[in-house]
Amino acid sequence: MPEGMDDPRLSAEGELALARMALDEGDLQHAAEHVAGAIAHAPTMPEVHEVLAQLATRTADAVALFALGDNVFIGTVVARAHLLAAAGRHAEGLDLLAAATGHVPTADWAGVPWVTEPQLAGRVEPDHLARVLMQVCAAVPDPVPEADREPLRPYLKLADNAVTAHPRHGMLLGAASALARRIGEATRAVEWAARGVEAHPTKLTEVWLGYAYRSAGRPAEAVAALRRAAAHDPEDLSVYADIAGTLADHGRLDDALAWIDRALAKDPTYDCAVHTGHRLRYRRDGQLRHLVALADFQRDHPDNSHEHTDLAECCHDQPWLGRLPSAGEAVVNVLRQMLANDSSPEGGRIWLSGLEPPSAMRAVSEAIPGLAVTVERILTPDIREPRRAGGRTLWRYDETLALPALPPPSPMAAERVRQLGYPAWAHPPAAYDAAVGFATVEPEDLLSLLVHPPAAPETELGRTIIEHDPALWVRCVQVWACLGMLHHRTEEPWADSARRRVLLDLVWGVEDWTTEAALFALVTAAWVDPSARTDVASVVAERLADVAAVSHDRPVSIAWSVAKLALATPDLDPDAVELAREIVASEETDAKPPAKRQRWWRRFLRRRGA
To answer: Which ranges does the record mark as transmembrane (predicted)?
Structure first.
């Protein structure tokens, strides 16, 4: 890219120079293409509109130079909108600007004088203005992040002018309120929506008023408006879900669930009520079964009325349900401390009272070249021995030094995990879906990744992980490699499948991070395949019991994490659930929950909008 061409204004000036040359040569079509390019870079730049006006004077039908078709360029759409408005076809021009906003909501497509001119509202039918505002609303989140609101303010000014020109048009007032609400103008949203209800009391205008009150922090009035909306149309169950959500947001869970039950009594498969109901029941009692039932519903009803985020909201930031917990080993804590004191530590010596999992030991030795580790004694049961004999061997030992027992993975496998590995997911079924990218990676390569994790990717997240906690990247690779196993030989019934056998070998191998990764893959399989649940719950309960038994004799650094995995397992036996809770409580009483060490990258994920 030539110097300066990454600057929008300079890019637009370059396009305008080419447009002027084409105009001088009488090549109007090429001039139009360069004007479209300029307007895409700088939609409000005065020089762009000057050249567009010059182009319009050269032909009787400048609009035809910006024809619409399949895969039309957005600059062409916006230029055509301005020419239509200049020709007195304002409604068509607004439609195209709204379409451009729907495609790129963060660009200032409407920040031009003709959109905010007070007289425009009188030139366009109020029904049409309402549709334009609703089209804009449909393209943006509710609420719009503050940083993204400025390009929408011309539409808000249009709305202001429109309700002034048409003060008794209920739909227009409601649509204007919806836009105001999205960009943080709650007071104006309430005013306009209230006027809309007064002018035209309908279900929709009452809903807009309810939403406006909710955004303004007036829940009682919001519920009252939504109740009136429900009275207008008792069969519209979406309003029931809105009432429930509003009540729940203000701590009235029992009242909220009563509305959900009313909706489900009318239609047990209505998606909004099902999603909201499971989310609220989980919020009330914390029972995993509500989330599993919601996941089952999502799988069995893929054609929902719209996208729902209830399951993701419930799983967000929860260990294993929504994110990978960081490691809890003493040797990893030492690594973190050394990194905090020195960005590139080398050498040194540490003493451990007992040997820790091979992945942890290996991750630290890789991160700190030359580090000498002295293990005072080997506690029993010997951590170097598998918990059950006969499975696959990932590690071999030279005294206390853990070495990979498998060859390195292929470069393709290493690159794939660098592309797909991530320490968070929306929920277990989403993690399963994301791991489909490993379906073309050979199972032996996936196993090799467990003991030969490649370098972290040169991305912001990759660099942040390596700077603060390199062990997290190792765990990330292992988790995604095991999830990848679930996508091999999927035609085989679960009970006799190769994927189950491989994961069980890992579960009962040496005590390691790979144990956690394999257990999470099994737990994920249970989430997405009900036929696997009884088997997986049995395996998890057995492995948890083994962790508890070993913990009586020596520390088990993965105990907290395995217990959290158990609490994420569908249909787990109540006794196992109780044991898992006891282990979690015991670990957290000791003031060392791994979740606390996760804060730095959780802040990173929030910054990135993940």
So the answer is: none
Cβ-defined contacts of 138-141 (< 8 Å, 24+): 138/102, 139/98, 139/101, 139/102, 139/103, 139/105, 140/101, 140/105, 140/182, 141/182
Distance, CA of 214 to CA of 186 (rounded, Å)? 9
Report yes or no on 298 lying in a domain.
yes
| CB of 193 closer than 8 Å to CB of 212 | yes
Which pair of structure tokens corresponds to residue 565?
Answer: 């995995």
Q: Contact at 8 Å (CB) between 230 and 262?
A: no
Rounded to whole angstroms, the Cα distance separating 76 from 96 reads: 10
Cα 487 to Cα 469: distance, rounded to the nearest angstrom: 29
Nearest of 62, 15, 72 to residue 38 by alpha carbon: 15
Nearest 5°: CA angle at 416, between 442 and 605? 135
193, with CB counted inside 10 A (0-12, 13-18, 19+), is: buried
Which helix (H) or strand (E) is 55 found in, with range?
Answer: helix 46-57
Q: Which of 263, 280, 315 is the last residue of a domain?
A: 315
Name 270's Cβ contacts closer than 8 Å, sequence gap at least 6.
237, 263, 264
Distances in whole angstroms, Cα of residue 94 to Cα of each of 125, 194, 238, 270, 381: 12, 26, 30, 35, 73
Residues 375, 400 contacting (CB under 8 angstroms): yes
Kindly state whether residue 395 falls inside one of the protein's structural domains.
no
Has residue 169 been placed in a domain? no
Distances (CA, A) of 153 to 105, 146, 187, 196, 549: 12, 12, 16, 21, 63
Query: CA dist 312 to 292, 424, 526, Å?
Result: 12, 11, 17
Domain of residue 467 covers: 408-607
pLDDT at 215 over 70: yes
- Cα–Cα distance measured from residue 220 to residue 244, given in angstroms and rounded to the nearest whole number: 12
Q: Is residue 437 part of a domain?
A: yes
- Alpha carbon distance 445, 414 (integer Å): 9
Band the pLDDT of 590: cuts 50, 70, 90. low
Question: Tokens representing 272?
Answer: 């909004």
Q: In whole angstroms, how large is the CA radius of gyration of the chain?
A: 30
pLDDT of residue 604 exceeding 50, the answer is no
Kindly report which listed range (1-10, 31-40, 509-518) carries the lowest average pLDDT score.
Answer: 1-10
Q: Please name the residues in contact with 309: beta carbons below 8 A apart, sequence gap of 6 or more.
A: none
**Closest to 558 measured CA to CA, from 332, 370, 339:** 332
273 three-state secondary structure: helix
Position 597 scores a pLDDT of 41
Q: Which two tokens stand for residue 1?
A: 């890219």
Phi, psi dihedrals of residue 419, rounded to the nearest 5°: -80, -40
Domain boundary among 260, 287, 315: 315
Secondary structure element (H or E) that encloses residue 349, with its range:
strand 349-352
